[in-house]
Amino acid sequence: MKDRVKVVVTGAAGQISYSLIPRLVDGHTFEDKIVDLELVEIPQVVNKLEGLVMELEDSNFPNMGNVNYTANFEEAAKDADWFLLVGSIPRGIVFNGKKIEERADLLQINGGIFVGQGQAIGKFGKPDAKILVVGNPANTNALIGRHAANNESQLWMAMTMLDSSRARSVLSKKLNIGIGEISKMIIWGNHSPTMYPDFENIMVNGLSGKDLINDMSWVENEFLPVVQQRGKAVIDSRGASSATSAAKAALDTVMACERPTQSGDCFSAAVISDGSYGLPEGIICGMPLMTTPDGKVEIVRDIILSDLAKEKIKISTDELIDERAAVEDLLT
Ligand code: NAD
Ligand code: LMR
């Protein structure tokens, strides 16, 4: 009999989910496992999910198990292995008469969602459940959810994989190399324009990416700003935030956690800081991670940070500390 995995997806009727959900059951992300899906939406739109379920059935995915849709998060959370928390309001839309421009605008609007969901995950999710927060502001939403869950054995992450994918894409064009030739692409800090894509620790086919780039003007004037502002650039063009690339990044994060990391490599996600690298404790901060052969996700602790890197990372961790202060009422 095949193993099963139960996956909860919130915001299941949204843009990202439309690209994400089918690929959870296509036999690639969870390899051979049968995937049971719990698709969660707010009551106003939950019935739209009936159509999505019809489409999933009509697609004949061989690894699809039970599929349920609901507006009851607590019910959905029972014994789940994975939570992909996408449900929240994106930038670029008008909410209560105001156009949402910055992630900070989302703090109070979206933060509240993660208190109830966090409590339910802590109580009903599997003890070793993994939670990936995609909804923005992802790092601080994950902090709120993790605090509400109050369950140390579960792993809360905020997604920075999309930022590392963007950085790889920009770099592969600069160096005229394939995406797959780049390893150790680390995003430090917040999933926001203050993030620090670490160009100094990248490896390209075993060689130092920093030496191959050898162009600080390009790093400062192109690489960093393009990666840091890519979310806004997509919103400005599409009139909606990145969806298919965000879905791919969520799948890449799941796969990075489900398979052992190759020796010498790492992947990017934000987790609770334990003071490693001198980062402030108690924020959800982008860091290098690895999955051990027995399936544990751990912080990689042997990365060397230059003074320049430390300076840039501090800008982002200071922002995370400010965000934490702004949602203090949700952390009590
Ligand atoms: P969308 O508006 O298309 O979909 C969001 C869905 O969430 C909606 O269907 C909405 O009804 C649902 N929702 C809202 N509150 C909910 C709740 N309490 N429970 C369940 N569902 C709820 O938006 P989208 O384009 O799919 O983006 C979703 C989020 O992902 C946004 O916050 C966006 O900013 C964020 N995002 C993050 C990254 C990243 O890299 N971390 C990248 C892209 C987008
Ligand atoms: C992104 O990086 O594309 C998302 O976080 C959406 C946004 O608001 O930038």
Question: Key features?
Answer:
three-stranded antiparallel sheet, 332 residues, Rossmann fold, 41% helix, L-2-Hydroxyisocaproate Dehydrogenase, Chain A, domain 2, binds nicotinamide-adenine-dinucleotide, binds (2S)-2-hydroxybutanedioic acid, six-stranded parallel sheet, 16 strands, alpha/beta, single chain
Explain this structure to me?
- The chain is α/β, with parallel strands linked by helices.
- It folds into 2 domains: 4-158, 3-Layer(aba) Sandwich (Rossmann fold); 161-328, L-2-Hydroxyisocaproate Dehydrogenase, Chain A, domain 2.
- Helix content is 41%, strand content 19%.
- It contains 12 helices and 16 strands.
- The protein has helices at 15-24, 49-58, 73-77, 103-111, 113-124, 138-149, 161-175, 209-213, 216-228, 230-238, 244-258, 307-326, and strands at residues 4-10, 34-40, 64-70, 82-85, 94-95, 98-99, 130-133, 155-158, 182-183, 187-188, 196-197, 203-204, 207-208, 267-272, 284-291, 297-299.
- The strands form 5 sheets. A 6-stranded parallel beta sheet has the order 3-2-1-4-7-8, sandwiched between helices.
- A hairpin with a 7-residue loop joins strand 10 (187-188) and strand 11.
- Helix 1 (15-24) packs parallel to helix 11, helix 5 (113-124) packs across helix 6 (138-149) and helix 7 runs antiparallel to helix 9 (216-228).
- It is globular, with a radius of gyration of 19 Å.
- The relative contact order is 0.13.
- The mean pLDDT is 96.
- Bound molecules: nicotinamide-adenine-dinucleotide (NAD) and (2S)-2-hydroxybutanedioic acid (LMR).
- Nicotinamide-adenine-dinucleotide binds at residues 10-11, 13-16, 40-42, 45, 86-91, 113, 134-136, 138, 159, 162, 191, 241-243, 246.
